[in-house]
Records
---
Amino acid sequence: MRAERALAARVRAALAEDLGPAGDLTTRHFLPAGRSYRAFIKAKAEGVLCGVPAAAETFRQTCPRAKVRWLAKDGDRVRPGQVVARIAGPREILTAERVALNFLQHLSGIATLARRYAEAVRGTRAKVYDTRKTLPGWRALAKAAVKAGGAENHRMGLHDMVLLKDNHWAGTTPEALARKVAAFRRRRPGVPVQVEADSLERVRLSLGLKPDLILLDNMGPRLLRRAIALVRRQAPRVKVEVSGGVDLHTVRALALLGPDRISVGRLTHSAPALDLSMKIETP
């Protein structure tokens, strides 16, 4: 219920941004009020569909009398020319068009890219994870799209996991940080603690903090291999994550080095939109 309310609020804000104080001038002044229209949404490129709940909510808020029949669901692979929805209703379905498509195109783009990464590491122990590099306000939607594509979610925000990065080491010592980690675990048992490392020395120091996960950031393949071996030897229960400049050309080679996780920022900050369009059917 909470997620549904959040989605409704996000759609409401998107519609308010598009309609402004004057509403849809084109539809209101140039299309007859009493006429019923039929339309369809189709994919114009191959990809993974996502954003159906947001698009459906857009039509619901804009024209409650419209009937929308979805022919594909989040996570379904679609091909060029495939009709994914049919809509029947008053002229206001055109008012909803752009906002509905914006949700579908952006989220389908994320899901499509996530699917490509997930398929690239298939057969290895590694899974692909997203990051917090999302558009402000789109975090939950973007991460749902990553899951729809077959990749995994890293922490939702700063509130559900500790990630000690290089800046958090500033002005302290490994011993002091270890005491703080131990104190935190007593206060917040069950909250995962991850530590970032960019050198073998930092890996050794990080393992002294007894983390749940270690993040190997911006290391070359040779150094990564040594760092992963060090973690496996000294702390086999610690999960190993790799990040930094990962793309589709390098992700499988990284996966073959044996990490548990590979985090990819471009899943949510650089995914190209999937091309979809809505067309009115002429009688």
---
Amino acid sequence: MASLASAFPILPGKMEQWKHFCQEMVGPRHSEYEASRKRLGVTREAAYLQQTPQGDMAIVYMEAQDISRVFEGFGRSQVPFDVWFREQVKEIHGLDLSQPLPGPFPEAIVDWRAS
């Protein structure tokens, strides 16, 4: 199982939209969100808010068999929920998931698990 943790800046003035976006995924759009993640091969996803002097960040943690496949799926899916998700990410974070990510995935430096 592969994992990814990444920080995505929340653009100035977009905090309320980000909170609403998150509430939609755990509320009214939860079944669509769950179906999307299953379809893309995601087995776990969590989002955290990190407030810093440089601005607010969304910290996203994800587990999947193939993280690259997940992001390719985000980019090309025409399922209405995935299109909505992509639009929200672009508006809130300035990240266009329909394009290749600007750089490599984050590198895990320490990954300890209880045995």
